[in-house]
Design a protein that fits this description.
The chain is built from 12 helices and 7 strands. By secondary structure, the protein is an alpha/beta fold. The strands form 2 sheets. The chain has a 5-stranded parallel sheet with strand order 1-2-3-7-6, sandwiched between helices. Strands 4-5 form a two-stranded antiparallel sheet. It is globular. The model has no long low-confidence stretch (mean pLDDT 97). The chain binds thiamine diphosphate (TPP) and magnesium ion (MG).
Length: 324
């Protein structure tokens, strides 16, 4: 049966994609001022993947993210204000300002963390899925990874384990065409979706600009995982709007590549067209969401800038070790 979405789900989908876009566009401008410490890898252009997948998850489900993790975080329900404060390194941040962009996490929400190790998320998601299976929580886990991560041994080993242990695990390979400056056409043998067959698991390739296509594939995979049917792979194909990291001059891309993408392959515009044609939502409702999110992100930046940094003496030794 094809995907059915309620009005609330449609609004939630658009609002979450808009939150990610606004968040990322704003981090882009703020990063240029030099006030944000560390690195930032932006997810703008890829929103439909995180949102289309996380639409089917709840708080008992876990995701393992990547270095490009802000979108996964927002889609899994993390607070954008606490996230912005984290990116600014503030005490009020999601991880007390000690994680920053690349180690942002919210375990209470099932967001196991962004990750500086390419392919580092897949083994963590394997562990989360094994926990869910062993303790019979009914939860599933999702391992997000890029085209670059699809070449890593950690991803291959996790796929093998997921299948032999029949884990409730979904591998979402987000193929944005590049790993740093290297085109996936140069570096990925075959295509990521074909890796699924090697481990005898179902695999499907979807257009990552189309949130409905992602959501449909994810619904099937999540249902399979929840009902004991084991792991699946979803190969999401799209592109990123910004450089690999903030500050990347992008000399490896055509001059008008991003401009064309933004004009013709924008998941938010495509969503608006689809729901408009089907007369499911009207443009005014969506404009109101845009305005609401703009205010939220303005506030997030203002509050982050006004917040204190962790205290070098008092906070240095906190959050260093986990107690079990
Ligand atoms: C194990 C490891 N190798 C290399 C790097 C350096 N590195 C950081 S991001 C990246 C590219 C990752 O590409 P992809 O998985 O396609 O993700 P994308 O950046 O495109 O979202 C590389 C090689 C790293 N962080 N970890
Ligand atoms: Mg990539």
């Amino acid at each position: 049966m094809s995907l059915q979405m309620s009005r609330e789900e449609l609004l939630h989908t658009y609002k979450t994609m808009r939150t990610i876009r606004e968040f990322e566009e704003r981090v882009h401008t703020e990063f240029a001022t030099g006030e944000i410490p560390g690195f930032a890898h932006l997810y703008a252009g890829e929103e439909a993947s995180a949102v289309g997948v996380c639409l089917h998850l709840d708080e008992k489900d876990s995701i393992a993210s990547t270095h490009r993790g802000h979108g996964h975080c927002i889609a899994k329900g993390c607070d954008p204000k606490a996230m912005m404060a984290e990116i600014y390194g503030r005490k009020t941040g999601l991880c007390g300002g000690k994680g920053g962009s690349m180690h942002i996490a919210d375990v209470a929400k099932g967001m196991l963390g962004a990750n500086g190790i390419v392919g580092g998320g897949a083994p963590l998601a394997c562990g989360a899925a094994l926990t869910a299976k062993t303790l019979k929580t009914g939860g599933v886990a999702v391992a997000f990874g890029g085209d670059g991560a699809s070449n890593q041994g950690t991803t291959a080993e996790s796929m093998n384990l997921a299948k032999v242990w029949n884990l409730p695990l979904i591998f979402v390979l987000e193929d944005n065409g590049y790993a740093e400056a290297t085109a996936s056409a140069w570096s990925v043998s075959g295509t990521p979706v074909k890796r699924a067959a090697g481990y005898d698991m179902p695999g499907v390739q979807v257009d990552g600009h189309d949130v409905f296509a992602v959501a449909e594939a994810a619904r099937e995979a999540v249902e399979r995982a929840r009902s004991g049917g084991g792991p699946s792979l979803i190969h999401v194909v799209f592109s990123r709007y910004y450089g690999h990291f903030e500050g990347d001059a992008m000399t490896y891309r055509e001059k008008d590549e991003v401009e064309n993408l933004r004009r013709t392959r924008d998941c938010l515009n495509l969503f608006r067209e689809r729901v408009g044609e089907a007369k499911l939502l009207d443009a005014g409702e969506l404009d109101a969401i845009d305005a609401e999110i703009k205010t939220l992100i303005d506030e997030a930046v203002a509050e982050a800038k006004a917040a204190d940094m962790p205290d070098p003496l008092r906070d240095l030794e906190t959050d260093v070790y986990v107690r079990y």
